[in-house]
Amino acid sequence: MGKGKSDDAKVVKRKGNTKMQLKRNIGYFYGVSFIIGSIVGAGIFVSPTGVLKHSLLNVGVALVIWTASGLVSLMGSLCYAELGTALPFSGGEYSHIKRGLGSLPAFVFIWTSVFTKPASNAARALLFAEYATQPFYGVCPAPEVLKKCLALAVLWSLGILNGRSVKMAAWVQTVFTLLKMMALSVIAVSGIVLLAGGRKETLARFEDMFSSEMPNVSQIAEAFFQGLYAYGGWWSLNYMAEEMKNPSRNIPLTVMTAVPAVIVFYLLVNISYLTVLTPKEIVSSVAVAVTWADRVIPSVAWIIPLSVAVSIFGALNSSVFTLGRLSYAGSQAGHLPVLISMLNVHTCTPAPAMIFSTTIASIFIIPSDLLMLTNYFGFSAWFMIGLTCASLIVLRYREPHLHRPYKVFLPVPFLMVAMSFFLVLAPIVWSPNLQYVYAFLFMLGSFIVYIPFVYFKMHFAFLDKITCHLQLLLEVSPPDGSAEGKHE
User: Fold this and answer.
1) Which letter does DSSP use for residue 344 in this model?
2) C-alpha–C-alpha distance, residues 81 and 72, integer Å
3) Which residue of 18, 109, 386, 419 shows the fewest CB atoms closer than 10 Å?
4) Contact 409/82 with Cβ under 8 angstroms?
5) Strand ranges inside 334-460, DSSP E
6) Contacts of the segment 376-379: beta carbons below 8 A, 24+ positions apart
């Protein structure tokens, strides 16, 4: 798709004799920051009520579900760690599905992701703008135009930053991850101190954790969905595997540090909320952390809304980074226009991929009603996780001699495949909606593009001239060889 190149195309002059490829600038500490920053967004501060609500306010069941959701996320991340160490190149699930299941499933993935992932970034940018502007307007709503302008400014600032310097993007990610973890630490430690104080009503809440009404199977499943959603983002590290230093060591180590750390923090923060607030107060609160702060630290309660904005910003930076790598990998495989796989000759960063993904996200911000459509694509995330874990199983049997520095216990990917397809089918069966059909048809629509442009390699000559001019304008050049090619 857009692979052809004109014979008279001028080659952009490279800086010195620099080899054109992504640089391994991300170490263990930056990797941990990216995973934690991807998982921890606004949810744990604003609305960790879904699990408790669907657990019928049963504190014991809710805490068990938070733990179980974290363990499922850890199992998934360990499956991804095997794939990332065996095949350390950009693209995350896309690259693994392509290697394990073939070109067509991989194209369906990138076709869907090019729609849903930028929409998710647009939603995060708008949410950041809302929290950043609201303090200046008090009880009045901030103007929509202002929020959209700020969202676009933040989105493009991060897009440009990630397109200019991986080290700077990683530094920003680390700073904002530390800030959000400091905020969570304040909540967690305060809760432990208050719990240690031994108020009778608080202790009784935890001593009789399972005494409330027990939820039925469907309610537990719904609570489980909410918990897994809060851990979303654990898969982000594999998108930057090609840029990890010593990926054989750092990918598993990073995963085994970051995901358990988030599980512990989520449990401590929920315990802190339950120490200060009753389950009914938590479920009825619009922003749980703000209500908590008004009770515990009223003089500096403004820290929490600021922490929410910081948390969203960090999650957005990580998402912008990973989405650029997905576009880059898709273009290298011929599933997106060839220009998107080119690297800046000065910085060796995938600048065209960053521009491409940021432009699509911007389209979702301007008429933000489009974001409503993406609510019905939630099932696609777990569908792709299932395909990725299935790819791991296929590769174990088809390529037994592939070097695997880390191997996950084989029943784990089988369990993840089964759980993924349950999470895909359950909401569709329990809450059937015509929009799910539209989402499924959209995914099938990828065949209309795949058959002529990828399978039959249909190409338009005029695209070569456009590619050449844009290549000169952006000062980009094709990479010297993909990391994927070295593993073929």
Assistant:
1) E
2) 14
3) 18
4) no
5) 343-344
6) 376/433, 376/435, 376/436, 376/438, 376/439, 377/112, 377/115, 377/116, 377/439, 378/427, 379/423, 379/424, 379/427, 379/428, 379/436, 379/439
Please, where are the H alpha helices in 134-276? 144-164, 166-197, 200-207, 217-230, 247-276
> Bridge-partner residues for 26, per DSSP?
244
* CB-CB contact of 6 with 464 (8 Å): yes
CA distance 350 to 308: 30
Question: In the chain, what is the straight-line distance between the N-terminal and C-terminal CA atoms, in Å?
Answer: 21
3-state per-residue secondary structure call for 107-160: HHHHHHHHHHHHHHHHHHHHHHHHHHHHHHCCCCCCCHHHHHHHHHHHHHHHHH
- Any residues with CB less than 8 A from the CB of 442 and at least 6 apart, and which? 112, 115
* Average pLDDT of adjacent 10-residue blocks, the chain of 488 residues: 45 57 89 94 82 88 94 96 93 93 94 90 90 81 90 95 92 94 92 80 73 83 86 91 92 96 95 90 86 87 86 93 93 92 91 94 80 66 93 95 94 95 84 80 90 89 90 90 55
Under DSSP, the state recorded for 412 is H
Whole-structure pTM value: 0.89
Q: Give the chain's length.
A: 488
Cβ atoms of 47 and 288 within 8 Å: the answer is yes
Q: Which of 378, 382, 230, 250 is nearest to 315 (CA)?
A: 230
Residue type present at position 426: A
154 HSE (CA, 13 A, CB side): 29
pLDDT in tens, 124-149: 999 899 888 887 887 788 888 999 99
Distance (Å, whole) CA 351 – CA 329? 13
Give the Cα separation of 417 and 382 in Å (integer).
9
Contact yes or no for 236/32 (Cβ under 8 A): no
Q: Which residue has the tokens 């120490």?
A: 275
CB atoms within 10 A of CB 131: 23
Give the DSSP letter string of 465-477. HHHHHHHHHHTEE
